[in-house]
Amino acid sequence: MKINIQPIRPKRISDQVYEELKNMIFRNILKPGDKLPPERELATGFGVSRSTVKLALQKLISQGLIEQRQGQGTFVRSSKKGYMENPLRQILSEDVSLSDLLEVRLGLEVNAAAIAAKRATKKDIELLEQSYQRMLANEDDKVASEEDVTFHMSISYATQNPAQVYTMKAFYDLLFYGIKENRFYLKETAHLPVITSQHKSILEGIKNRSPQEAAQAMKEHILFVMEFCKKMQL
What we know:
This protein is mostly helical. It has eleven helices and two strands. It has helices at about 15-25, 40-45, 50-60, 85-90, 100-120, 120-135, 145-160, 160-170, 170-190, 190-205, 210-230, and strands at about 65-70, 75. About 35% of the residues are buried.
């Protein structure tokens, strides 16, 4: 059989800059509303040309992750709704419940917690700790929803598995929607302290390098929220 073989093209430098900035946004290193450094400063930091940075920024703009404000600069958008927006709208139109979303998370995140406990770097654990502390400090505020999502996304990054990270990025809008809704109802019924404690247990499992402890803590956390949603018929 004759096949058409094409030369392998190396990944463009602008795509590497784009991936790095995108990861910083999803890991909440660059937070919603943050102003990005000027193009010249980014180019110096990455060791690339300004035109390379410009291409990377245009790609992020087209995906709705950042926005340019005339006379002000470039900012991380307050919502990542442009990223995976159509699939989110389509899925939610199919009458998907919060319990449905949690079932998917159960499969994805219990295993991720176990792997993260084995592979997390010192930096990964620092970022998880920071997310948890901000979540704790803003327990009753909407900021905590963003930090809750960041905490779970950071666990995916800590697996060092690009497939896991890619899947969670694609799942991001649904994850944010589910956590935001869950936290609203949990707050109304005074259950948020329980959730905060469960996040601490997950973090401790990862810090202790115990896959079993981390996986069990994640499982208990998601099952708790699932049971809550079922009782509330969410």
